[in-house]
Amino acid sequence: MKIAIIIPTYNEVKNIKKLIEKILKLNLGVRIIIVDDNSPDKTKKVVEEITKKNKDVELILRTNERGRGSAVIEGLKLALKDEGTEYFFEMDADFSHDPKDISRILEKIKHYDVVIGSRYMPSSKIINWSIKRRVFSRFANFYARLILGIPISDYTNGYRCYNRRVLKSLDFSKFKTKGYIVLSEMAYKIHKSGFKFGEIPIVFLNRKRGMSNLKLQEISDALTSVLKIRFSK
Ligand SMILES: Nc1nc2c(ncn2[C@@H]2O[C@H](COP(=O)(O)OP(=O)(O)OP(=O)(O)O)[C@@H](O)[C@H]2O)c(=O)[nH]1
Ligand SMILES: [Mg+2]
Questions:
Q1: CA nearest 229: which of 183, 161, 162, 170?
Q2: Where are the domains of the chain?
Q3: Is domain 2-231 in CATH 1.10.1040.10, yes or no?
Q4: Whole-structure pTM over 0.85, yes or no?
Q5: For the chain, is the Cβ count within 10 Å smaller at the N or the C terminus?
Q6: Is the CB of 35 under 6 A from ligand 1?
Protein backbone atom coordinates (compact mmCIF):
# COMPACT_ATOMS: atom_id res chain seq x y z
CA MET A 1 0.00 0.00 0.00
CA LYS A 2 1.61 3.24 -1.12
CA ILE A 3 0.51 6.55 0.32
CA ALA A 4 1.12 10.13 -0.80
CA ILE A 5 0.49 13.16 1.37
CA ILE A 6 0.05 16.57 -0.24
CA ILE A 7 0.68 19.59 1.96
CA PRO A 8 0.07 23.09 0.54
CA THR A 9 2.17 25.78 2.16
CA TYR A 10 2.14 29.55 2.28
CA ASN A 11 4.33 31.11 4.96
CA GLU A 12 4.71 27.97 7.04
CA VAL A 13 8.39 28.27 7.86
CA LYS A 14 7.62 27.85 11.57
CA ASN A 15 5.64 24.64 11.11
CA ILE A 16 6.71 22.64 8.10
CA LYS A 17 9.91 21.00 9.34
CA LYS A 18 8.31 19.75 12.54
CA LEU A 19 5.25 18.51 10.69
CA ILE A 20 7.28 16.55 8.15
CA GLU A 21 9.31 15.00 10.98
CA LYS A 22 6.16 13.97 12.81
CA ILE A 23 4.68 12.35 9.72
CA LEU A 24 7.89 10.48 8.91
CA LYS A 25 8.09 9.22 12.49
CA LEU A 26 4.81 7.38 11.97
CA ASN A 27 6.75 4.99 9.72
CA LEU A 28 3.94 4.49 7.26
CA GLY A 29 6.26 4.68 4.27
CA VAL A 30 4.61 7.79 2.89
CA ARG A 31 5.70 10.09 0.11
CA ILE A 32 5.29 13.73 1.17
CA ILE A 33 4.75 16.38 -1.49
CA ILE A 34 4.91 20.00 -0.34
CA VAL A 35 3.40 22.53 -2.73
CA ASP A 36 4.69 25.98 -1.90
CA ASP A 37 3.63 29.16 -3.69
CA ASN A 38 6.97 30.86 -3.25
CA SER A 39 6.15 31.98 0.29
CA PRO A 40 7.81 35.29 1.23
CA ASP A 41 8.99 33.69 4.50
CA LYS A 42 11.11 31.27 2.42
CA THR A 43 9.33 28.08 3.47
CA LYS A 44 10.94 26.56 0.37
CA LYS A 45 14.45 26.84 1.87
CA VAL A 46 13.51 24.68 4.83
CA VAL A 47 11.79 22.15 2.59
CA GLU A 48 14.69 22.05 0.13
CA GLU A 49 17.04 21.19 2.98
CA ILE A 50 14.83 18.23 3.92
CA THR A 51 14.46 17.01 0.32
CA LYS A 52 18.24 16.83 0.03
CA LYS A 53 18.38 14.35 2.90
CA ASN A 54 15.18 12.41 2.35
CA LYS A 55 14.01 11.09 -1.01
CA ASP A 56 10.48 10.56 0.32
CA VAL A 57 9.98 14.31 0.62
CA GLU A 58 9.51 16.44 -2.49
CA LEU A 59 8.87 20.09 -3.20
CA ILE A 60 6.75 21.61 -5.92
CA LEU A 61 7.56 25.29 -6.07
CA ARG A 62 5.01 27.46 -7.87
CA THR A 63 6.03 30.98 -8.75
CA ASN A 64 3.09 32.11 -10.87
CA GLU A 65 0.11 30.87 -8.93
CA ARG A 66 -1.54 31.22 -5.52
CA GLY A 67 -4.25 29.28 -3.79
CA ARG A 68 -4.64 26.26 -1.53
CA GLY A 69 -6.96 24.41 -3.88
CA SER A 70 -4.92 24.60 -7.05
CA ALA A 71 -1.76 23.82 -5.07
CA VAL A 72 -3.26 20.58 -3.80
CA ILE A 73 -4.41 19.64 -7.30
CA GLU A 74 -0.89 20.16 -8.59
CA GLY A 75 0.42 17.84 -5.88
CA LEU A 76 -2.24 15.22 -6.52
CA LYS A 77 -1.43 15.22 -10.23
CA LEU A 78 2.22 14.50 -9.51
CA ALA A 79 1.37 11.78 -6.99
CA LEU A 80 -1.02 10.12 -9.46
CA LYS A 81 1.82 9.64 -11.94
CA ASP A 82 3.11 6.88 -9.70
CA GLU A 83 0.81 4.00 -10.61
CA GLY A 84 1.64 2.20 -7.37
CA THR A 85 0.16 4.86 -5.09
CA GLU A 86 -3.21 3.80 -3.72
CA TYR A 87 -4.11 6.50 -1.19
CA PHE A 88 -3.76 10.26 -1.46
CA PHE A 89 -3.99 12.60 1.51
CA GLU A 90 -4.26 16.35 1.71
CA MET A 91 -3.65 18.17 4.97
CA ASP A 92 -2.73 21.62 6.27
CA ALA A 93 0.77 22.53 7.37
CA ASP A 94 -0.16 24.36 10.58
CA PHE A 95 -0.86 21.37 12.87
CA SER A 96 -4.60 21.94 12.76
CA HIS A 97 -4.65 18.43 11.31
CA ASP A 98 -2.99 16.03 13.74
CA PRO A 99 -0.69 13.57 11.91
CA LYS A 100 -1.78 10.93 14.42
CA ASP A 101 -5.14 10.79 12.65
CA ILE A 102 -3.50 9.50 9.46
CA SER A 103 -3.66 5.91 10.74
CA ARG A 104 -7.33 6.25 11.74
CA ILE A 105 -8.15 7.61 8.30
CA LEU A 106 -6.25 4.76 6.63
CA GLU A 107 -8.33 2.22 8.58
CA LYS A 108 -11.52 3.88 7.46
CA ILE A 109 -10.62 4.33 3.77
CA LYS A 110 -10.58 0.55 3.34
CA HIS A 111 -14.39 0.76 3.33
CA TYR A 112 -14.89 4.08 1.53
CA ASP A 113 -13.64 6.01 -1.49
CA VAL A 114 -12.99 9.28 0.34
CA VAL A 115 -12.50 9.87 4.05
CA ILE A 116 -12.84 13.31 5.60
CA GLY A 117 -11.49 14.39 8.97
CA SER A 118 -14.53 16.23 10.25
CA ARG A 119 -14.83 19.09 12.71
CA TYR A 120 -18.57 18.65 12.87
CA MET A 121 -19.32 15.16 14.10
CA PRO A 122 -20.72 14.77 17.62
CA SER A 123 -17.36 13.88 19.17
CA SER A 124 -15.30 16.33 17.08
CA LYS A 125 -13.70 19.34 18.71
CA ILE A 126 -12.45 22.71 17.58
CA ILE A 127 -9.86 24.27 19.85
CA ASN A 128 -8.78 27.87 19.83
CA TRP A 129 -11.22 29.38 17.36
CA SER A 130 -12.88 32.74 17.86
CA ILE A 131 -16.68 32.93 17.96
CA LYS A 132 -16.59 34.79 14.63
CA ARG A 133 -14.62 31.97 13.03
CA ARG A 134 -16.92 29.30 14.43
CA VAL A 135 -20.05 31.08 13.26
CA PHE A 136 -18.68 31.65 9.78
CA SER A 137 -17.50 28.06 9.36
CA ARG A 138 -20.80 26.64 10.62
CA PHE A 139 -22.68 28.91 8.26
CA ALA A 140 -20.44 28.04 5.29
CA ASN A 141 -21.01 24.35 5.94
CA PHE A 142 -24.74 24.73 6.35
CA TYR A 143 -24.91 26.80 3.17
CA ALA A 144 -22.80 24.34 1.17
CA ARG A 145 -24.95 21.45 2.35
CA LEU A 146 -28.13 23.28 1.45
CA ILE A 147 -26.94 23.97 -2.08
CA LEU A 148 -24.86 20.86 -2.81
CA GLY A 149 -26.56 18.19 -0.67
CA ILE A 150 -23.58 15.88 -0.18
CA PRO A 151 -24.06 13.56 2.83
CA ILE A 152 -21.01 14.84 4.77
CA SER A 153 -20.75 17.02 7.87
CA ASP A 154 -17.64 18.97 6.90
CA TYR A 155 -17.36 20.48 3.42
CA THR A 156 -14.38 22.73 3.91
CA ASN A 157 -11.84 20.94 6.07
CA GLY A 158 -8.78 20.03 4.03
CA TYR A 159 -7.92 16.87 5.94
CA ARG A 160 -8.90 14.17 3.51
CA CYS A 161 -7.87 10.93 1.93
CA TYR A 162 -8.93 9.79 -1.54
CA ASN A 163 -8.42 6.45 -3.18
CA ARG A 164 -6.95 6.20 -6.65
CA ARG A 165 -10.24 5.44 -8.40
CA VAL A 166 -11.82 8.65 -7.14
CA LEU A 167 -8.98 10.87 -8.28
CA LYS A 168 -8.79 9.18 -11.67
CA SER A 169 -12.46 10.02 -12.19
CA LEU A 170 -11.84 13.76 -11.85
CA ASP A 171 -11.03 16.07 -14.74
CA PHE A 172 -9.10 18.80 -12.95
CA SER A 173 -8.94 20.94 -16.10
CA LYS A 174 -12.71 21.46 -15.80
CA PHE A 175 -12.57 22.77 -12.23
CA LYS A 176 -14.20 26.17 -11.78
CA THR A 177 -12.74 27.15 -8.42
CA LYS A 178 -9.25 27.84 -7.05
CA GLY A 179 -8.98 28.57 -3.31
CA TYR A 180 -10.35 26.64 -0.31
CA ILE A 181 -13.63 26.07 -2.10
CA VAL A 182 -11.94 23.53 -4.39
CA LEU A 183 -12.62 21.16 -1.47
CA SER A 184 -16.35 21.57 -2.00
CA GLU A 185 -16.09 21.33 -5.78
CA MET A 186 -14.12 18.11 -5.51
CA ALA A 187 -16.58 16.67 -3.03
CA TYR A 188 -19.51 17.58 -5.28
CA LYS A 189 -17.99 15.98 -8.37
CA ILE A 190 -17.07 12.85 -6.43
CA HIS A 191 -20.58 12.66 -4.99
CA LYS A 192 -22.16 13.07 -8.44
CA SER A 193 -20.09 10.13 -9.68
CA GLY A 194 -21.59 7.97 -6.93
CA PHE A 195 -18.51 7.38 -4.77
CA LYS A 196 -18.80 6.66 -1.06
CA PHE A 197 -17.82 9.19 1.61
CA GLY A 198 -16.71 8.26 5.11
CA GLU A 199 -15.88 10.66 7.94
CA ILE A 200 -13.99 10.45 11.19
CA PRO A 201 -14.31 12.94 14.05
CA ILE A 202 -11.17 14.97 14.64
CA VAL A 203 -9.87 17.47 17.12
CA PHE A 204 -9.08 20.55 15.08
CA LEU A 205 -6.47 22.74 16.71
CA ASN A 206 -6.18 26.28 15.42
CA ARG A 207 -2.71 27.35 14.32
CA LYS A 208 -0.29 28.39 17.03
CA ARG A 209 2.54 29.52 14.80
CA GLY A 210 2.66 31.36 11.55
CA MET A 211 0.26 33.68 9.82
CA SER A 212 -3.35 33.25 8.85
CA ASN A 213 -3.99 33.22 5.11
CA LEU A 214 -7.76 33.55 5.12
CA LYS A 215 -8.94 36.79 3.53
CA LEU A 216 -12.40 38.36 3.63
CA GLN A 217 -12.41 38.44 -0.16
CA GLU A 218 -11.86 34.70 -0.25
CA ILE A 219 -14.81 34.15 2.08
CA SER A 220 -17.22 36.08 -0.12
CA ASP A 221 -15.83 34.40 -3.25
CA ALA A 222 -16.47 31.05 -1.59
CA LEU A 223 -20.16 31.78 -1.19
CA THR A 224 -20.67 32.59 -4.86
CA SER A 225 -18.46 29.67 -5.88
CA VAL A 226 -20.79 27.17 -4.19
CA LEU A 227 -23.55 28.33 -6.53
CA LYS A 228 -21.19 28.06 -9.49
CA ILE A 229 -20.30 24.49 -8.52
CA ARG A 230 -23.95 23.51 -8.22
CA PHE A 231 -25.25 25.12 -11.38
CA SER A 232 -22.44 24.69 -13.89
CA LYS A 233 -22.40 21.81 -16.33
N1 LIG B 1 0.42 26.59 -1.75
C2 LIG B 1 -0.42 27.36 -1.05
N3 LIG B 1 -0.82 27.00 0.18
C4 LIG B 1 -1.68 27.81 0.84
C5 LIG B 1 -2.17 29.02 0.31
N6 LIG B 1 -3.00 29.58 1.22
C7 LIG B 1 -3.00 28.76 2.29
N8 LIG B 1 -2.20 27.69 2.06
C9 LIG B 1 -1.95 26.55 2.94
O10 LIG B 1 -3.17 25.87 3.13
C11 LIG B 1 -3.29 25.41 4.46
C12 LIG B 1 -4.51 26.05 5.10
O13 LIG B 1 -4.30 27.44 5.19
P14 LIG B 1 -4.51 28.25 6.54
O15 LIG B 1 -3.85 29.58 6.42
O16 LIG B 1 -4.12 27.42 7.71
O17 LIG B 1 -6.06 28.48 6.49
P18 LIG B 1 -7.11 28.34 7.64
O19 LIG B 1 -6.84 27.09 8.43
O20 LIG B 1 -8.43 28.49 7.02
O21 LIG B 1 -6.79 29.63 8.50
P22 LIG B 1 -5.86 29.82 9.81
O23 LIG B 1 -6.75 30.29 10.88
O24 LIG B 1 -4.87 30.85 9.40
O25 LIG B 1 -5.18 28.53 10.14
C26 LIG B 1 -1.99 25.75 5.16
O27 LIG B 1 -1.12 24.66 5.05
C28 LIG B 1 -1.49 26.94 4.34
O29 LIG B 1 -0.09 27.11 4.40
C30 LIG B 1 -1.73 29.37 -1.01
O31 LIG B 1 -2.08 30.39 -1.56
N32 LIG B 1 -0.86 28.53 -1.63
MG1 LIG C 1 -5.11 26.69 9.38
A1: 183
A2: 2-231
A3: no
A4: yes
A5: C
A6: yes
